[in-house]
Amino acid sequence: MSVHVSAHDLAAVPRAALWAVRLEVISQPRQLKLWLAFLSALCVFGAVGALLSLPPGWEVLGTTPSFEWGILITAYVFFAITTSGLCLASSLGTVFGIERFLPLEKRHAILAVLCLVTAFGIIALDLHFPVRMVFGAVLSPSPASPMWWMGVFYGVYLVFLLTEVASMFSGHWQIHRIACVLSSITAVFAPLTLGAVFAVLAAHPFWHGALTPPYMIFSAFLSGTALLGIVFYCVHRFRLADFERTETVALPALRFLLIIGLVASIVLVAMRVVTGLQSTIPALADATVALIAGPLALQFWIFRVALGLVVPMALLLAPRTRTPIGIFAASCLAFVGIFADRALFVHAGQIVPTTAAAGTVSVPYAEYTPTLVELSIVVGAFAFVALAYTLAERFLDMSPHLGHQARGQVEVTAWVPAPTEGVL
Amino acid sequence: MNGTGPSVSRRGLLKGGLLALPALAGSRMLSALVSSPDDAVAAAAAPGTTAAYDPALHDWAFVCHADRCIGCGLCVEACKLENHVPLDPEFNRTWVERHTVTEDGEVLVDSPHGGIDGFPPESTAEGAEGARTKEAYFVPRLCMQCDNPPCVSVCPVSATYKSEDGVVLIDADRCIGCGYCVVGCPYGARYIVPSGEETPIGTAGVADKCTFCYHRITRSQQPACVEVCPVGAREFGDRKDPASPINVALRDDRVRVLKPEQGTEPRVFYTGLEGEVG
After folding, report:
1. Which of A202, A225, A197, A214 is nearest to A77 (CA)?
2. Helix crossing, A324-351 with A282-293: angle to 10°?
3. Cβ contact (<8 Å) for A145 and B155?
4. By CB neighbour count within 10 A (0-12 exposed, 13-18 middle, 19+ buried), where does A109 fall?
5. Is A141 an 8 Å CB contact of chain B?
6. What is the pLDDT of residues B167-180, one digit of tens each?
7. What is the ipTM of this complex?
8. Cβ B110–A361 below 8 Å, yes or no?
9. What pLDDT digit, counting tens, does each position of B151-208 carry?
10. Where in chain B are the domains?
């Protein structure tokens, strides 16, 4: 008995399946085996942290009543908006039919599903009662709460994405087209509701206000595009499926999208800093000062501004670095910059204590340091996405779908580095 | 048909019964996971709520007299004992702050261990050392039981709700522990219950806050902090009861609320406050 997945016959009997997996692993190139082993080890590290965080109320997290949302919320927001960004970037090809963005299609959808599943996993670990949330959201809905809407939109979004992926690999193009349109529409509304979760909190003026939801959308666009930049460089570097179109079409398109995302982010970061400094609300002004000249200044200027915005922009604009490796470096830095931005956003929003309660009175700023358990979960989450995506890239048919090219006519993928780096 | 109405065969009855069993079991499981609003009110009021208590007949309010408070910390201790609040100073249903105004006009706030052990003569706040004190006063803090509570509107599963008598309550069986109400409260009056010996069984991981000692006030008793206060700095009463001293305090004293700009409409009022209290 066997199951046919893409071009592979997978044994459905456990013993035979294990044997097949063993043979498959042995047959892989050494570099890939090392990469998979490294990611698997990080996943195990994350899984241990996840298990430790399961009992409700057990104090393995570094959060406190005056700093309730920590790095797990940062990671959740990061993966959730990255999912939306992937769809926003690829919708240019899938929804609007712009030819040069079409190669993004399959890879974005798989990455989006993986990022969203990871985001849900992280938030489930951060919530003390995730099962209650699923039933509670349905049986006792609270439409006044942006968090409820966020759950609805991201839940629906996952359904659309799964439909998109399933129809893509099963060849149901009519369903695929509808799923693409629906997921692209949801990709706009989901980060809007996520932004609203923070924007409605008048108790935290750094988060509060109409600027937060659009900020979330543009951050989503940039992180999704940056992730695609990383992945498509790997496609080019290791000559994976459809690498020719990646070099000629996808990477130049991504460079263009990255520049748009970076320009928008620079404008929004500048707006946030200027409006914060000029605010008459003490907590907002204090939080902004903490960000640019206080305890968060080092992270802000180095990771967010220099490495996250300025250097990537320079790499993308300079003629000498207008190469695949240049785009890869810019994407990596922008990706790290967005994560730093999410962490700074969550941190700065809580750094000014809402009250002089015990533990926060003797210091001007609320303090938070993530624990090893929290860090392991975040590291494990990144490793999970990378591992699952590597396996998908290896075993799924990533060639363009029937609408653009007949199935099965694409060359078999190979794990061979590209010989040269050309200027785009 | 024999003219006596629709008949039900034994097979049909059995089939219906077998189908109904999993449905019943499922509904039991669901109700165990998500309680109904009626369960919520009962759970919040228990233990010890009198069956005769009708929330619609009451309108509770609280007055903190900052000009009377001596910062002894008995209220904090009584609250922790009465409500199984963790002894860790980060977790409080009520706490006391000392506001020290320096001659430069700077306000320094300290609350060592939530004020449970009282206060040392000098402020422990950063920058207080060597500062010349102009005046100092104590500010008792607790949930403001807002009439427009941000914690209620942000809760995604309606676990936090406002009772008819004005008290904001939490259904611990429905709370998912997301912490949205904790970050949504402008007064820092909420916390997520950690696990530990002093925590009531089954409540670790859910949100908690002051309920005016709901289990006491629904039995015609005063909140624990009010009862132990040796100087009458905390006053509690029913605005619908004309004989309640709270109405005198609200009418005759110059009362104010904390953070009025938030629009939360607290039902905890203060007298004797100087300047802004965050």
Report:
1. A197
2. 140
3. yes
4. buried
5. yes
6. 999 999 999 999 99
7. 0.85
8. yes
9. 999 999 999 999 999 999 999 999 999 999 999 999 999 999 988 766 776 688 899 9
10. 37-91+136-271
Cα distance between residue B144 and residue A377, in whole Å: 36
The beta-carbon neighbor of B158 closest among A66, A140, A353 is A140
Q: Tell me, rounded to whole angstroms, the distance of Cα A361 from its chain centroid.
A: 36
Give the whole-angstrom CA distance, residue A53 versus residue A266. Answer: 36
Say whether residue A307 is in contact with chain B using an 8 A CB cutoff: no
* Chain B CB contacts of A58 below 8 Å: 194-195, 204
Rounded (10°) CA dihedral A38, A40, A42, A46: 180
Do the chains contact at A201 and B184, CB–CB below 8 Å?
A: yes
Question: By the 8 A CB rule, do B1 and B7 touch?
Answer: yes
Q: Does residue A340 sit within a domain?
A: yes
- Both structure tokens of B252: 């005759």
pLDDT class for A414, splitting at 50, 70, 90?
very low
Q: How far apart are CA A216 and CA B246, in angstroms?
A: 47
Question: Per the structure block, which two tokens stand in for A95?
Answer: 């929804």
Contact call for A357 and B113, based on CB within 8 A = no
pLDDT tens for residues B225-260?
999 999 999 999 999 999 899 999 898 878 999 989
Would you say residue A141 lies in a domain?
A: yes
- Residues 345-364 of chain A with CB under 8 A from chain B are 350, 353-359, 361-364
- Residue A419 belongs to some domain of the structure: no
Domain CATH code at residue A320: 1.20.1630.10
- What confidence tens digit (pLDDT) does each residue in B92-111 have? 999 999 988 888 888 888 88
CATH tag, B37-91+136-271: 3.30.70.20
Nearest CA in chain A to B177: A128
| Contact (CB, 8 A) for A224 and A85 | yes
Residues of B in contact with A66 (CB under 8 A): 90, 188
Scanning the structure block, which residue is given the tokens 């009056």? B189
Tell me the chain B residues in contact with residue A68 when contact means C-beta distances shorter than 8 Å. 179, 182-183, 192
- Which domain, by its residues, includes A347? 31-395
pTM, entire model: 0.85
Which residue type does A58 have? W
Partners of B107 in beta bridges? B101
Quote the CA–CA distance of B43 and A289 in Å, as a whole number: 45
Question: What are the chain A neighbours of B273 within 8 Å (beta carbons)?
Answer: none
SS3 content of chain A, % helix, strand, coil (to 5): 70, 0, 25
Using CA atoms, how far residue A173 sits from A84, A98, A104, A395, B156, in Å, is 22, 17, 16, 21, 37
